Amino acid sequence: MIQALQIGGGLIVAMALLQLVLGVGAKTSALFRERRLDARRLQRFNDLADLALRTAETDRLKSGSTWAGKRKFRIVEKRVENKCSDICSFYLQPHDGGELPPFLPGQFLTFELPIADQPTPVIRCYSLSDSPGRLNRYRVTIKRLPPPPGADAKVPGGLSSTYFHSSLKEGDVVDVLAPRGGFVLDLQSDRPVVLIGGGVGLTPVLSMLKALDDSGSPREVRFFHAARSSDDIVLVDEIREIASRKSNVHYKVLFSAPTGHCVEGRDYDLSGFLTVDVLKEYLPSSNYEFYVCGPPPMMASLTEQLRDWGVPESDIHFEAFGPASVRTVQKPRVSEGAAAGVEVEFARSGKRLHWEEEDGTLLDLAEKHGVRIASGCRAGNCGTCATALRDGDVTYVTRPASSPAHGSVLMCVACPRGNVILDA
Ligand SMILES: Cc1cc2nc3c(=O)[nH]c(=O)nc-3n(C[C@H](O)[C@H](O)[C@H](O)COP(=O)(O)OP(=O)(O)OC[C@H]3O[C@@H](n4cnc5c(N)ncnc54)[C@H](O)[C@@H]3O)c2cc1C
Ligand code: FES
Description:
The chain has 424 residues and is α/β, with parallel strands linked by helices. 30% of the residues lie in helices and 25% in strands. It starts with a helix and ends with a strand. The chain binds flavin-adenine dinucleotide (FAD) and FE2/S2 (inorganic) cluster. Residues 375-378, 380-385, 410, 412 line the site of FE2/S2 (inorganic) cluster.
């Protein structure tokens, strides 16, 4: 019902705009007959029509999932993307042969993977890395995570990414939830935009670039692509191809650890890490919309430096790929609104616990004390950890990408605001 109203609301806005457009259209055709229509009016007419259609489409997509629950997808192509073979793209088509709904540039898919020896399906999110307009197949691009450096020999590599790389092959079928996520490019804006992708964090911003290219947008686009070296950079040819066609798209590659066979000027433009000082060399001002996705240290330092440079919060958009990045980027907000020394009651487990800031999120607290709560992305994206809140209030470490149902909280990004009672 709420969704229907939201869709209805979007349509009302879009219809009002269309009426305006049609009104202008009727007048313009009369003016046209009288040969008094000037180019600027025609342009205005086209802009309004475009805006009306985009508003309707954006609202439809933002209003919720484009299919309910899980849907089976076949892996129709698996492609190794980099020299060190730790990043692969997977192209997916619906197993039911049905339509492939569009998505907003920057959104992700959520996978439910039946990995051997895991008590429940493993849930992970992967950004859609291709154009939202390419509607015959989705693409996700996944980095295989090794154990952390210096970890005990018993520590396994990443569950889901290893499964994708080592077990899944072309022809296999996977369970996928519909595209979602709030880290999306504002297609209605005409302001210049900076897209920053570090490592495999390139994926959502590449989709944004492709959306701008597909729409023929004249917006100034500054694309900064950070990687270690030419061994692990991915999808660079796709970006170069767009930049070579579009005079409004400017592309810079930075290598933090170029190897002997990386040639400056051919493989990369700059060595070192991406900082605001680097951005300042290329941008005439800070008056851009910034979209940032990359490894935690890059996200933490860049978002902070952008704020210091005077970029308003509303112009800094970023995506965290996991709990580590959420915590690093949002650290100051963990305590914002959260009340230290409060009681957290897990009613069904019969546990009443004391929460201090160092206990972290409610999910961290639950796990530390043996209260079982299903989780997936651990970043407020997939909705798996939604738990009913019987009493009290919470504050979020990071704004969840999907709003939990009324009366529920996303435990992986929630901290208590005072005493709380949870249905877990
Ligand atoms: C919105 C969103 C979009 C994303 N998009 C992408 C994308 O486009 N591409 C992409 O590659 N990723 C993306 N991610 C990240 C992805 O969802 C996964 O988090 C990532 O693949 C790691 O999952 P995993 O199951 O392989 O690793 P996990 O099993 O979660 O392990 C993570 C790390 O912990 C280590 N580890 C495991 N057990 C231990 C232990 N006992 N002690 C110490 N260390 C341990 C592992 O070795 C590994 O290094 C995205 C995440 C989000 C939230
Ligand atoms: S685990 Fe995905 S939203 Fe909490």
